[in-house]
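1st attempt posting a full record on here, be nice pls
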Amino acid sequence: MTEQKTETRTFEADVSRLLHMMVHSVYSDRDVFLRELISNAADACEKLRFEAVSRPELLGDDAKPRITIAADPDNKELVVEDNGIGMSRDEMAEALGTIARSGTRAFLERVEAGKAAEDTQLIGQFGVGFYSAFMVADRVDVISRQAGSDEAFRWSSDGKGTYEIAPAPLEAAPRRGTRVVLHLMEDATSYATPYRLEGLAKSQSGHVPVPITLVEKPGAEPRDIADGTALWVRQKSEIKAEEYTDFYRSIAGQYDEPASTIHFRAEGRQEYSVLAFVPGSRPFDLFDQDRKGRMKLYVRRVFITDDADLLPRYLRFVRGLVDSADLPLNVSREMIQESPLLASIRKGVTNRMLADLAKTAENDAEAFAKIWENFGVVLKEGLYEDYERREQLLKLARFRSTASGEGWRSLADYIGAMKEGQKAIFFIAGDDRARLEASPQLEGFRARGIEVLLLTDPVDSFWVTMAPEFDGKPFKSVTQGAAELADVALPEDAAKPDVETSSDIATFLAFVKATLGDEVSDVKASDRLTESAVCLVAPEHGPDRQFERLLNAAGRLDKAAKPILEINPRHARVAALAKLGDDEKAFKEDAAHLLYDEARVLDGDKPADAKAFSARLARLIDRGLAKG
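the predicted structure (as tokens):
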């Protein structure tokens, strides 16, 4: 063998600047270095498999591919080794000395030139992944022996501008393949602990097509931690329920049983596999302010990111992954979501998720009720945000109502129970179901047996403004505008209210309106009240009462609309007040204000003026005591 000496070279790029970019810009998480090294190792094994088709002697007596991770906590070292194709001296300089290229890319180009790309699966079509090792190591050594060669070489660098290549003794080199030795920084020594290594390898690269073993300390026996088979590429018929559950728990960080499992493979213009789960209970981060999804993106069984927006935010409770065969792997892995291919995958996965939920709702109402109990409030965000799928989401939506008891009602159920003459889907929105059920605005609807949806989630007030109808029936708040009850007949055994308003009542309503002035926009006789004396409703146009409160609390309401005070002309107290003469004007003025404050309290608000309210109430009590 010709004697070869140690050679020091300068990187063929402004490595200091590019490595700084790698460490501080391209990768947002130091953990990805292990993914990159395992990806490169898997590539090397795939290359050897391809070469061995024509040169089987390259495999020798070591035909099974493997990746070994070895930890040495005492020496603060970490080793990632493969028995793949290996590298020659020149290939080391080419693959490890140049940022903008990689042996993987060159190999893929050669394979494609021979029209045999379908015979191999390569992961890293980029030239910077290896350098992520310098995020955790202050020196990296690479010892490699090319398959079929009797020479080995050592590459070493601190990543600051130069690297060395020198011959390596065969006894210190792998029999075949590449060994990467990381001399860990002081703040990265935890990466030499077996527990952390096993967790990272399983979560990020546990499904590359090469088995992975772990050596926990020097001299220990290797232990299998990944068998090289991705669960999601197996046939559903081959997978047991407990395997799905174990995978769900590992990928979701949950300890419950999944409520639903969605596993399919899409073929056609894009090829990708999906394995996703609806959790059996609410994840702790369900209401995270950022509303980020938790679906992981893989490309050819290698983890890319869990921040790719694979599902819309209203499906953020879904846990799982998408594995694409078409997406490119390039320098900006964390920015891969900008790919138009990913947009197409996102659409397909979202539609399939909603279709599967619809199937569950149709075939197993009890299971879907549990899903809706946990995640309905999140799914309803889609009614506001996703115009394209609003009809699908409305069909999925479930509600409490005045007719549901403790059960759930679909809109199809509601429409099926609509009364003759009823033209709208009525709802009332607020933050407390018990208070809503006691609302005076419901009285006329309850008397006619008209079902009213009870909307208690904040998002409800938003989506009803964006979803004008379902099955041709508009949504209408019972706290806004006219009640529209005239077309729905009362039951035969119900007391029929007087349809005409007496002149005394009409005069009294005019008096109340004049007394309240700008506090209300109008005072009307009510056909929605049957028991209470008063209630407040919002004008026909603009937000309803609850939506106005939410906008005001968020500082997004420039000017609140003046409410309409509805007075029950059939109420005994109102009738008595209407009969009072002009000599009782002061008392009637107090009564007008008290009726308005009563309506505010029934609506969940405070009296308009607490001091004035107390004074009027005191005068009312004094009057009663004086007459007593």
